[in-house]
């Protein structure tokens, strides 16, 4: 292996990459269905607007799933595409620009490629223009077999809102394509209806708009609720087709939807002042891992999108011996409560560090920055090392890997 990769490997191997023997292979041989919930933040989960539950379907599902309330989005300027990059590769997006554009010709060792080697057929469903975020190129690089984009869906004005095809039709029209995928498959859905500026026709509203003087904020609840209901319909379709039980579901928010331009309405809604601490806590996005038939469990571990690749692969019973992963299996006993955001902010079990200041959880009171000091170089190195991999295209030096399907340690 190249000497350029050696310091990276010794760094990623410093952090314990544990495997939870009880969880390893829990979903072995199942289909993997990954759903990216556009702009969905955790503050809507188990919460209400105008006295009504915002996400009744997700709230129910959470009771039968692993739910991660301290899961953070780690994207930068590449927004949705950064979240995809993080999740597929366990590498960070770049400090500026979108890695989907700048480094689409690199070598990677992405989840679709890894699963492809054990017979999974992979497909993405996203009803936008195929070249948006350079996806048509990047998906080939990541090893996707199929990409169903705008041109593969029947998109009419009645079936569209805002950025394009409504989520309910994305799911509905994907069913015939799912039928033609060879099982086990890896299907990734990128939803769109809950995208800024959160437009929705009144007839599609499940909850009504909130009543602050911030229209964007008020409408957010309606599109989140619509997204929730569309997902419910999709699950029903999968059950009818007999695909539900044979699949592992990973559902997560891609990034925040409510920017700091809406802090006044947010303060009013949450009844809490907007502080740098609050800003970081609002970068939490839902993560739901659902393996049909399991018991529900809330997992408090501080985590981020970087951790999904090892988590998913281990659940499917794949351990990639010599992969370079910056994340850690969320079920591993020895994993540390620590997550770095793309701007260098970080979160531990006790502290949040952002904009050069250290805050104590859960109240968010500022404490001496010394309290956060020990983690600061770790956070910096984490991002630097990942950036070196991407800028230097270092995964071209990865040795062909062996997949160990029988880990029980
Ligand atoms: C566009 C969709 C939304 O295809 O992924 O993009 P975003 O603006 O959220 O990155
Ligand atoms: Mn997005």
Question: Could you explain how this protein is built, in words?
Answer:
This protein is of the alpha/beta class and 409 residues long. Helices cover 31% and strands 17% of the residues. It has helices spanning 6-14, 56-62, 79-89, 99-102, 111-117, 135-142, 167-179, 215-241, 263-270, 276-281, 308-315, 370-373, 376-391, and strands at residues 31-37, 48-49, 52-53, 66-67, 71-72, 121-125, 146-148, 160-161, 164-165, 185-190, 247-253, 287-290, 297-298, 303-304, 319-320, 338-340, 346-348, 351-354, 357-360, 365-367, 403-404. A hairpin with a 2-residue loop joins β8 and β9 (164-165). The chain is globular. Manganese (II) ion is lined by residues 38-39, 79-80, 254-255.
* Distinct ligands: (2R)-2,3-dihydroxypropyl phosphate, manganese (II) ion
Proportion of beta-strand residues: 15-25%
Spatial arrangement of strands, main beta sheet: 7-6-10-1-11-12-4-13
The whole-angstrom Rg is 20 Å
Structural class based on helices, strands and sheet pairing = alpha/beta
Integer average pLDDT: 96
* Proportion in helices: 25-40%
Shape: globular
**Number of alpha- plus pi-helical segments:** 13
Low-confidence stretches: none
Q: Largest sheet at a glance?
A: 8 strands, mixed
């Amino acid at each position: 292996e190249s000497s350029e990769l050696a310091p990276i490997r010794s760094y990623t191997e410093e952090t314990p990459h544990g495997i939870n023997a009880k969880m390893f292979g829990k979903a072995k041989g199942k289909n993997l269905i990954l759903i990216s919930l556009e702009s969905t933040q955790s503050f809507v989960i188990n919460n209400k607007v105008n006295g009504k539950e915002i996400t009744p379907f997700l709230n129910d599902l959470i009771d039968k799933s692993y739910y991660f309330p301290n899961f953070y989005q780690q994207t930068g300027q590449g927004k949705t595409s950064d979240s995809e990059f993080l999740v597929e590769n366990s590498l960070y997006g770049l400090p500026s620009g979108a890695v989907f554009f700048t480094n689409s010709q690199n070598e990677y060792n992405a989840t679709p490629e890894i699963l492809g080697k054990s017979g999974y057929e992979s497909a993405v469903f996203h009803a936008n223009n195929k070249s948006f975020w350079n996806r048509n190129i990047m998906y080939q690089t990541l090893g996707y077999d199929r990409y169903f984009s705008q041109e593969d869906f029947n998109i009419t004005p009645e079936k569209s809102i805002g950025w394009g095809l409504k989520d309910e039709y994305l799911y509905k029209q994907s069913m015939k394509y799912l039928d033609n995928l060879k099982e086990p498959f890896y299907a990734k859905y990128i939803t769109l209806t809950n995208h800024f500026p959160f437009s929705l026709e009144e007839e599609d509203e499940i909850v009504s708009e909130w009543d602050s003087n911030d229209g964007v904020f008020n409408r957010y609840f309606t599109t989140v609720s619509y997204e929730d209901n569309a997902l419910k319909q999709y699950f029903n379709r999968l059950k009818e087709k007999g695909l539900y039980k044979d699949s592992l579901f990973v559902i997560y928010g891609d990034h925040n939807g409510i920017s700091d331009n809406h802090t006044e309405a947010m303060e009013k809604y949450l009844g809490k002042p907007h502080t740098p601490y609050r800003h970081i806590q609002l970068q939490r996005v839902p993560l739901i891992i659902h393996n049909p038939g399991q018991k529900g469990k809330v997992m408090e571990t501080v985590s981020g999108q970087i951790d999904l690749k090892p988590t998913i692969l281990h659940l499917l019973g794949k351990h990639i011996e010599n992969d370079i992963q910056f994340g850690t299996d969320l079920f591993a006993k020895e994993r540390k409560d620590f997550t770095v955001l793309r701007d260098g902010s970080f979160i531990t079990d006790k502290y949040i560090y952002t904009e050069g200041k250290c805050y104590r959880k859960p109240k968010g009171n500022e404490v001496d920055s010394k309290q956060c000091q020990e983690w600061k170089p770790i956070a910096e190195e984490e991002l630097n090392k990942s950036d070196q991999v991407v800028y230097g295209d270092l995964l071209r030096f990865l040795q062909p890997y062996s997949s160990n399907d029988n880990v029980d340690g």
